[in-house]
Design a protein that fits this description.
With about 650 residues, the chain is of the alpha/beta class. Helix content is about 60%, strand content about 15%. It has an eight-stranded mixed beta barrel with strand order 7-8-10-11-12-13-14-15, surrounded by five helices. Strands 1-3-4-2-5-6 form a six-stranded mixed beta sheet, sandwiched between helices. The structure holds ligand C2E and calcium ion (2 copies). Ligand C2E binds next to strand 8, helix 15, helix 16, strand 10 and strand 12.
Length: about 650
């Protein structure tokens, strides 16, 4: 059935294919009308020139009718030409919308031409001349009406029938003349059918090219998931808006939206629901900022270039709609904003500033909106400086290793050291890790610091052995990203081999938050490190979530209790009881305990009483440089525990004879 419908040319056509047909018809219309105008003008001229001679054997009304016929043909052709020329310039949509006008113009031309053909040919027939005019007219008309084969066949069938009746009326037709007429009709129909298929073929292939084109354009400008614009499109069009002098630069503002808790949402409801939610969020933002440029930057991040009008109200409205939608999980969002200063600013950098402002309030639970200002700008510049200069800092020795002693709770003697990084910069001065560790983590450069600190720690132990100091085990902080970007185990092995120090002199601290997210992938490299013979310490226990799961899944050697436990510690109250229970639990499962951030004697006494083995904090020592540490050991300010001397083993696990202590 479908085939027959297609063969008859009755299938549904899309706007593009239909437009193609109509344009093909219009093109034919231009040529044909031009030809008809020239032809009929010539006919009028020749008629005028031979009028006297012709009038001798024909009547005046014959001449008038002929002039009227030629005139009508010229008028109909002129209309067809003007309209066709106009149509060729229209878009497919416009052609679709005004197609009834096209149908009327072509129909009018066809009707005038057919009537003219029938009349003139009838006259010629009467004078025993050939019926050429009618056939020519029918061919011309079928060129203009290549549109639906069935309709063309019916139309020409009808025209031929009327022509036949007209001729019969003048003078009865012979059987062979009737047959000729029928064959002529068939020929005209076939010609229009062939033309139809040719044009259709071309239209379909043009359409598929057009749809590939459209698809490519969409892919280049659209975000696959949410179907709103992508960053590439945003960049181009934001740039155009910025440069447009008609837009008030002072009123333009870039916004960066970051959903809160989206990870938790994904975790709880799964990927599919998460995607649906992103689509919904994108739709809400687009609807709210309907006159502005909205794009998805990545993940759950969106960018908007808005005019500074009722921004607060719009953001409130988005929040309101999200509340309406949200399930049990709280899904808010944070917004960073940046006001461009110049028209030639790069929109991607503007979005970056807004993103930075947004990131600066990530952990501030009550803040939801932050503009990029002077303070943020200098912080941003410092961070860029850090990222760009990490290699120089390693090379030129701006990066330094500091040590903070860990002591036995029972006697306050040093049992190990924690290696902590410091950056002493010629431009920015002395920087604590919180000024450079997070930004280097963000830019996946932190392994450079950790590699350096490990190297210096091993070098320090080697030096201590050579200088006759008691070597003290050092714990190294490693970031989750180290495990992703490098083979930490190999690095540990290589470094201790380089300095020829025993494995049990180096411990590895990994924070709970690094494991908390999707710990599974990280167990493998961590297990390898442990199997290699390095102790693994769980850092910041109690600061993140799923703490107990981590303990169950992996046998850590030491658990470092986060210093949060000690702030507002009430030894008699709830916090004291919690701490006591944790120490008992660790004891039960065979993990050693260490409390961080011990600042007062009371805290130290309490921790000792409840059985915490090791303590670290300002009460005993702040992080200090190697020189200061050695001086303090020499001066007896720091006392090294005798029992760590028994821990020292060589790489085969045999006890190492220690040099005489100081
Ligand atoms: P962390 O590993 O939890 O290190 C302990 C932090 O607590 C150190 O801060 C230390 O100076 C501080 N601290 C120690 N005792 C006390 C105390 O009694 N009271 C208070 N208020 N603070 C105390 P620091 O050195 O600023 O390091 C901060 C964080 O930076 C570290 O936390 C660690 O996560 C990270 N970090 C430091 N060095 C490195 C490193 O070489 N590599 C990596 N990946 N991270 C590092
Ligand atoms: Ca640590
Ligand atoms: Ca810690």
């Amino acid at each position: 059935m479908k085939r027959i419908i297609k063969w008859l040319g009755l299938e549904k056509r899309n706007a593009h294919i239909d437009g193609y047909f109509r344009k093909a018809n219009a093109r034919a219309g231009v040529y044909i009308s031009a030809a008809v105008i020239v032809l009929e003008s010539w006919m009028i001229l020749s008629l005028l020139m031979t009028l006297r001679e012709r009038l001798q054997n024909r009547s005046v009304s014959w001449a008038v009718n002929h002039f009227a016929g030629y005139g009508a043909m010229i008028v109909a052709s002129a209309i067809l030409m003007l309209y066709s020329l106009k149509l060729l310039k229209m878009s497919d949509e416009k052609v679709q919308k005004t197609r009834w006008i096209g149908d009327m113009v072509q129909g009018f031309f066809a009707a005038v031409a057919v009537i003219f053909g029938i009349y003139i040919s009838g006259q010629d027939y009467l004078h025993n001349e050939m019926a050429i005019t009618f056939i020519s007219v029918m061919l011309l008309v079928s060129c203009v009406l290549v549109w639906r084969p069935v309709a063309s066949a019916l139309f020409s069938g009808f025209a031929f029938y009327v022509y036949y009746l007209h001729l019969e009326n003048i003078k009865a037709l012979s059987d062979s003349a009737k047959l000729n007429l029928f064959i002529m009709w068939m020929t005209v129909s076939l010609v229009s059918l062939v033309m139809y298929y040719q044009i259709r073929e071309a239209a379909v292939s043009d359409d598929s090219m057009e749809s590939v084109n459209q698809h490519l354009i969409k892919r280049m400008t659209q975000d696959d998931l949410t179907l709103i614009y992508n960053l590439g499109y945003f960049r181009t069009h934001a740039s155009i808006s910025l440069r447009n002098e008609n837009n008030d630069l002072g009123k333009m503002i870039f916004l960066f939206l970051d959903m809160e808790n989206f990870r938790a949402f994904n975790h709880q409801y799964g990927y599919h629901e998460g995607n649906e939610y992103l689509k919904r969020f994108a739709a809400i933002i687009s609807d709210t900022f309907i006159h502005d440029l909205v794009a998805r930057v990545s993940d759950d991040h969106f960018a908007i270039l808005a005019t500074d009008e009722e921004i607060d109200e719009k953001l409130d409205k988005i929040m309101e709609e999200m509340r309406h939608d949200t399930k049990e999980i709280y899904l808010g969002f944070k917004v960073g904003a940046y006001r461009p200063k110049r028209r030639d600013e790069d929109p991607v950098v503007c979005v970056d500033h807004a993103r930075y402002a947004c990131g600066s309030i990530k952990k501030h639970y009550t803040e939801h909106y932050r503009e990029y200002d002077e303070a943020l700008s200098s912080l941003y510049l410092r961070q860029q400086y850090i990222v760009n200069n990490i290699d120089t800092a390693v090379e030129k020795g701006y990066l330094k290793i500091y040590y903070q002693p860990v002591v036995w709770a029972k006697n306050g003697k040093v049992c190990s050291l924690e290696a902590l990084a410091r950056w002493d910069d010629p431009e920015y001065g002395f920087l604590a890790p919180n000024a450079f560790v997070p930004v280097l983590e963000e830019y996946r450069q932190i392994h450079k610091v950790d590699t350096f600190i490990l190297d210096r720690a091993c070098q320090g132990i080697k030096e201590a052995l050579e200088l006759g100091f008691v070597p003290i085990p050092v714990s190294i902080n490693i970031s989750r990203l180290d495990l992703e970007v490098m083979d930490v185990n190999q690095l540990l092995e290589d470094t201790i081999a380089k300095y020829q120090i025993p494995k049990n002199m180096i411990h590895v601290e990994i924070t709970e938050s690094a494991l908390g997210e999707d710990g599974d992938e990280l167990w493998h490299p961590i297990s390898r490190i442990k199997e290699s013979g390095f102790d693994i310490w769980l850092d910041d226990f109690g600061s993140g979530y799923s703490s107990l799961n981590n303990l169950k899944d992996f046998s850590f050697d030491v658990m470092k209790l986060d210093m949060k436990f000690l702030t507002n510690l009430d030894v008699q109250g709830k916090s004291g009881r919690i701490l006591r229970n944790i120490i008992n639990l660790a004891d039960d499962i065979g993990i050693h305990t260490l409390a961080e951030g011990v600042e007062t004697r009371e805290q130290a006494d309490f921790l000792k009483e409840i059985g915490c083995e090791r303590l670290q904090g300002y009460l005993f020592s702040k992080p200090i440089s190697t020189d200061v540490m050695r001086r303090q050991i020499r001066d007896g300010i720091l006392v090294i525990s005798e029992d760590i001397q028994y821990e020292i083993q060589d790489s085969q696990g045999h006890a190492v004879a220690l040099p005489e202590g100081e």
